């Protein structure tokens, strides 16, 4: 288990995508091992690779890391994306927890039953435009810097960009009322490691499609 981190998950965004974003932003090359069928998951469960019988799982630094937030925390800490002191880290953690909440809504939309999709979409857009994005617009205004926290890139910046781009897939003008977030998006997208991740052919995954949903459900249920 040496060399590049190895990510074990299905070939899609899900809960692994934030981890891909953080590694890419840190300039870390990684490999992926895709679960294609239920037996692939069962094998990992049976050989003791999955502490709680669940993926995502990331092999790195001689460990088999599980639990999305724990993996993201490890990567962010290792690659200096957690701020310069405890107070900055507390702010980053608060912002990121809010982002995970919105991410969960956006990520699960494709898996909603047909009769629930409309309601889920309305709730998701309402939360993005009235609860979460106004907070980050205000943070940028009050902080007055290029980044959400301190004066250097943190995981909060990376995860907010990921969220913005996901939200824009559902509603391209979702940032219309948020000029500082528009500028933030342009700025963070232009950081070399992130710019590279946003190019075609990178390990960034596309939005989930209907046919992917059925495949994922077969692996996990």
UniProtKB/TrEMBL annotation:
- All copies of the GST N-terminal domain together span 3-83
Task: Supply the enzyme class, top level.
Answer: transferase
Which GO MF terms are attached to this record? glutathione transferase activity
Q: What region holds the GST C-terminal domain?
A: 85-208
User: What are the EC numbers?
Assistant: 2.5.1.18
What is a biological process (GO) this protein takes part in?
Answer: glutathione metabolic process
* Top-rank lineage group of the source organism: Eukaryota
- PROSITE patterns this protein is in? GST_CTER (PS50405), GST_NTER (PS50404)
Determine if Ribonucleoprotein is one of this entry's keywords.
Answer: no
* Keywords on record: Transferase
Which InterPro entries does this one have? Answer: Glutathione-S-Trfase_C-like, Glutathione-S-Trfase_C_sf, Glutathione_S-Trfase, Glutathione_S-Trfase_N, GST_alpha, GST_C, GST_superfamily, Thioredoxin-like_sf
**Family statement:** Belongs to the GST superfamily. Alpha family.
| Protein name, UniProt field | glutathione transferase
> What gene is it encoded by?
LOC111925886
